[in-house]
């Protein structure tokens, strides 16, 4: 009788242990499925929302420079999934983070008010930092609404000098130090300052530029996207091919200067040679339309 009881006890114990292992495994498994590879969690989110139909970063639409109350309202009502806006410190007191692009130094909307509106929507935001001084107070404001923000948050700054770049980049070490700890679930968008001259040969991104960037990003935990200037891409293919190979956390965000002369055919090389999850296109509406209509675009 005692032996039978003992056997039963062992049987129940074993079954419980095995069952917990299975539950644990399934939980981990579903977690990794729902998150996907790191560079894709923005796509995953909008796919879940049904605002994109497939995991293709070219299907993400951008709203630009939502740096005023009226622009933000328009952005929130529009179809773009991601809202891009610039952040700097107000020129006069109170010197709080505001939504503005230099040379402006004032705005009718502070970052705090901007975030207050964004939390009511399921759109994502890309905050483009134009001054180092704005970073720390902005990260504090962001922390205050973390629980309420639904969409992805991208934190952007130019942190290295790039081709023909004349603006001073934000100090990469200070920027990353202030941002990295407080944005574990964000996408870091880290770029080079650039320039473009219609009347000259415009050099592409050099090996030194991509090597420097990779060194800075290697130890980060977040997905990183590199904003790259569309008109320079055709002369920088080898460099970006190398860069994307260094980590599956890395992606590109192709952007354009308003007056750059861009041949959209040049972008096909990228579209065809990299996973569609790894290249975002933040271009003018007319350029996107033209790009998507090209014979080689699939
Ligand atoms: C802000 O910009 C205005 C207009 O360009 C300028 O007159 C003013 O001096 C600037 N203020 C600061 C504090 O830089
Ligand atoms: C890019 O992709 C195209 C089409 O798939 C292929 O023909 C070409 O060799 C690739 N180029 C490079 C540089 O990988």
TrEMBL record:
InterPro entries cross-referenced by the UniProt entry: Menorin_dom (IPR019356)
Spans through the membrane: 7-28
Span of domain Menorin-like: 56-287
Keywords for the protein's UniProt record, in alphabetical order: Membrane, Transmembrane, Transmembrane helix
GO cellular component, one term: extracellular space
Signal peptide bounds: none
Keyword Transmembrane found: yes
Homology family: Belongs to the menorin family.
Protein name per the record: Menorin-like domain-containing protein
Native organism: Sinocyclocheilus grahami (Dianchi golden-line fish)
Encoding gene per record: fam151b
